[in-house]
Amino acid sequence: MSYDLHGSWEKNVDLHGKLHPTKGEVSGIGIFNTEFAADYWASKGMPKQKIIIGIPMYAQGWTLDNPSETAIGAAASRPSSASKTNPAGGTASYWEICKYLKEGGKETIHQEGVGAYMVKGDQWYGYDNEETIRIKMKWLKEKGYGGAFIWALDFDDFTGKSCGKGPYPLLNAISSELGNSFIFWMKNSTISS
Questions:
Q1: How far apart, in whole angstroms, are the C-alpha atoms of residue 8 and residue 61?
Q2: N or C: which end of the chain has fewer CB within 10 A?
Q3: Domain boundary assignment for the chain
């Protein structure tokens, strides 16, 4: 998996599925990121074409201790508030993030880590959007990794109404970058035990 690398079990906010390490990291410094994990497996002999990169369709969320401090590493003493998809709090689906953005949440694209985060009041959510997913798909093709998988389809905007970009905007971002480029490999590969 290349998500849930950070979450509300920690006391500082961070992007849970980021591609690269970032300034401000408090836990897993330099290693809790997709690039490190995938490269580590490859360095230990796993064929790159068998390494599949996981893409979350949801956000990990926190309640900020100080709503004016929102950068990666900002203090947060508890999970985000309850969401429709998680009444206990701490996560929200992408379609919920779109609703929060329409209600005044402010989105920041983190170029260094390749991820997005949204702040609304004292609520902080780290997630992927269409832009960050496209960057990740280009990266995995350039590096020669085998493809991508998602968790979970129903967390994308399946109706197209929350984000206003048509049904499944995140899945479509993956598909638009990968297209059929991996079908040939899959048809011509063998699985060894």
A1: 6
A2: C
A3: 34-187
Measured CA to CA, the distance from residue 66 to residue 74 in angstroms comes to 8
Of 191 and 37, which is predicted with more confidence?
37
What is the rounded (10 degree) CA torsion for 98, 110, 126, 29? 170
Strands (E), the chain: 52-56, 58-64, 76-79, 91-93, 106-110, 115-120, 123-127, 147-151
What's the CA gap between 63 and 79, in Å, rounded? 6
The answer to whether the predicted template modeling score (pTM) of the entire model surpasses 0.85 is yes
Residues 107-165 have pLDDT tens digits of: 999 999 999 999 999 999 999 999 999 999 999 999 999 999 999 999 999 999 999 99
- Pick from 170, 158, 157, 173: which is nearest to 102 by CA? 157
Cα→Cα distances 85→93, 96, 153, 159, Å: 6, 8, 13, 15
DSSP letter at 12 equals B
- β-pairing, 91-93 vs 76-79, is unpaired
Assign domain 34-187 to its CATH architecture.
Answer: Roll (3.10)
Q: Which two tokens stand for residue 92?
A: 């929200």
Distance, CA of 137 to CA of 101 (rounded, Å):
24
